[in-house]
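Worked problem 6 (solution included).
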Amino acid sequence: MTNPLPKGPTHSALWQLIRWIKEPLSYQQECLQHYGDIFTLNMKGFAPFVIIGNPLGVQEIFSQNPDNFDVGRGNEIAEPLFGTNSLFFYDGQRHQRERKLLMPSFHGQSLQNYAQSICDIAVEVASQCPENKPVIIREVMQTISLEVILKVVFGISEGERYQAIKPLIAQMLDVTDSPSTSSFLFFKFLQKDWGKWSPWGRIQYTRRQIYHLLQEEIEERRRHKKHSHSDVLSLMMAAKDEKGQSLTDDELKDELMTLLFAGHETTATTMSWAFYQILSHPSILEKMRQELEENTNHLTPLETAKLPYLSAVCQEVLRMYPILPIIFPRITKTKMTIMGHEFAPETWLTPSIYLVHYREDLYPEPEKFKPERFLEKKFANYEYLPFGGGTRRCLGYALAELEMKLVLASIISNYSLDLTTQKPVKPQRRGFTISPAGGVPVILSKRLFV
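Solution. The predicted structure is:
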């Protein structure tokens, strides 16, 4: 006899799925209030999800032997976007191999190579915004993030292939623009190719075009030995495992698509939330500018990214608006006990980043934007986990943080910004992320330095 799962809402499975798609944050809060910080959701088309919003429960999961879980199978909802050869869908030795091959592309000297490019892209894109006229900051951040993906990750910044692939990527990302268009990720019956005017058809059509261009780029680099070692694709192509084997072309393309979706929309959304909070708190903006003006003349971009108050602001943004509201499920392969609950094999355990980040006992006044909390205390990796944790922590977290810090620093150092409205901005689902509804309209004007 198996032990019952923790209690949860008793609404129909379809209604629970609709609430999850439309209101993933408020729905979690409602469940927390009714059932405590461990509860079960039964959503149509999915196995029961045990949501865990207690940091000690998260710690117990992270400390488990990774072989006790299937994680790749729990990520399959992302397969329509990432492709079948993504690191997201691997476990065991295959996961270790791919992660080891990809890791150098996102750490160490590689970050040093990317830093100046990020600053240059941020300034260039901002300079093209109309001065003293409203702009949607999310659209500006999407443009910056897309250029970073193209130049820093794909290594494509000019020429016919750049001109061809850029609008295709924008089209691909637009498919998950709202809760309604994101629904195909959650409803399998919508994943039908009814031609390129249907959401699923557009994804398939656009993906084929992008993959064709990426294949051309890979073949050209091999043919002309164009490995600059200054972009992620070049490093991925050059990487070899212990047996001397490289990533296959299919693996390269699917990993690039994973980086596109995991690194573009997420970073653009987080930076948009950052500007919303910073501009809503003039004293915080002033502190950031003061720190930057005192230091940036003699610091490299990588050193700028380590400034304490800038870092604290970004950490607080990631606390309030984590990249994803939950970690993708861990599916138990053996019996295990978490928070005193005994779980049978095939139980889907899902840590909630959002619920942990909004605990009053961890983060007093969690609804308030208070960067100082990260200057006053260091949080454990199961208390603050915007990029997940354990062996599945986001591979590109260091690049995402670097981009966020340098884009904020570059723009607020060179521009004055003002919100066009004082109305609170509400969260809205955009694919897997939670984006600011309306995109945060602002007015940019060049700062005058005396």
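Discussion: The mean pLDDT is 86.
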